[in-house]
Fold this sequence. Notes:
Pfam families: CHAD (PF05235), CYTH (PF01928). The protein is an alpha+beta fold.
Amino acid sequence: MLEVELKFQIPLSQQKQIYQLFLSKNARPISLYAKYYDTPERHLAEQKISLRQRLEDTHWIQTLKAPSGHHLERFELEHDLGELDHPALDLEVYQSNSQAKKLLQQVLGKQAKNLIKQFETEVERLVYVVHYNRAEIEVSLDRGEIRHDNQTQAIYEIEFELKQGSIKDLIKFIQPWVKQYHLWLDVRSKAQRGDLLAQNLEIFPTQFATPLQLNQKDSTDSALKQIVNNALQHLLPNATAIAAEQYNSEHVHQTRVAIRRLRSALRVFGDWSTDVDPDWQEQLTTLFRELGSTRDRDALSEGLLPQLQQAGAPFVQLPDAPEENSIPIEESLRSLDSINLILALLQFVHQPSKDQKKSGLKKDIAKKLQKLHQQICKDADQFLELDISSQHRTRKRVKRLRYCIEFIASLYPGKEVKNYLKDLKPAQESLGQFNDLNVAEVMFQDLVKRKQKVWFILGWIANEKKYILQQAQEHLDTYSKTDTFW
């Protein structure tokens, strides 16, 4: 019922070599033709559910797939329709499966009668099975295309499906492939790619953070793995969009937010599990910095420049980006270091949780949140007297606290959490604006020698900084008086 697999894209330069490798393994060839169904309003696609009929050589197989709680796993239900010419879509086969029946009823309801073919795929698959340690892994190379009307999109990807055994062995088996052939992880399904093609779109929707439901009876080890998994659910679709070069500035922003959430979780709650690798924090910081300058410039273009224009600045244009040795962000997210980090985090969230006493979760949360709360209140007492780096540290503490509260909010009364965040968020926003002004000031200071008009901008920034700094102090003062909920 649960399909456990990881899919990777293959760089053009490696495709021929991998194809030859599959031939040398006497991989079994299978011809696959599939039709994907949905309503005109895309009820299934909106919930990341796919319903397809696929001709596998001579047999038609009808398959329903839906997300599970992890990126590695998907709910999958197959029905063999036999050797028919053109079988009709048969939803009756799901009446005997309570999970599938409930899922389709919730998502489709009376719209089930409006299901029509949206797009199709034609794939030549080469597949062989490997026994690695105690795992059985099916390795597939898919070559073909997705079609909608007269539009097509090429498929050339490799999948590793765990038939039996541990996810640890699956990932250990995959890692040499990633290193040798420069594979990069792709969390988009063929159904999602086909849905985008059917809509005549090129860029995937941005993935935002979703609420996490924890149980106060969870062990701290289990809670941390759920928190990291929640952050990965946020990160991976956006990282895939960037790696596939089908992204906009919001994908970059959300990727950075997801990395910040991961870093915050590991920094504050990292001692909850002995499975945490201390190197992850530094690796995430490196990846965050590689995405940094691009996002800073996007944020200033979308936020600061319109304000300057409104203020009557004679020159409204960001300075050219300095020549950097850094690699493009798409390459950064396809790099071996990034893929290995993601695989390590995926392995972490799938490791069985350690047996621990299960009564101390909220007590431990309270201790950690109280420490952050007190640090911020201490900063608030003297914020205007702090140096720039200490003010920057305050901003990071506020963000870290907010992310951690969002992770554990389900364990506390919603109204109390909401009231606390109501006083925290203004401080975060004003501190963020102050940071943006500092970034802009550095950018324009380098330009002032060549463009005298920039003096206006630097003067405006200096005045705005004074105002925002005072505002941040007021917001921090208000926050420091708020009641805690833990």
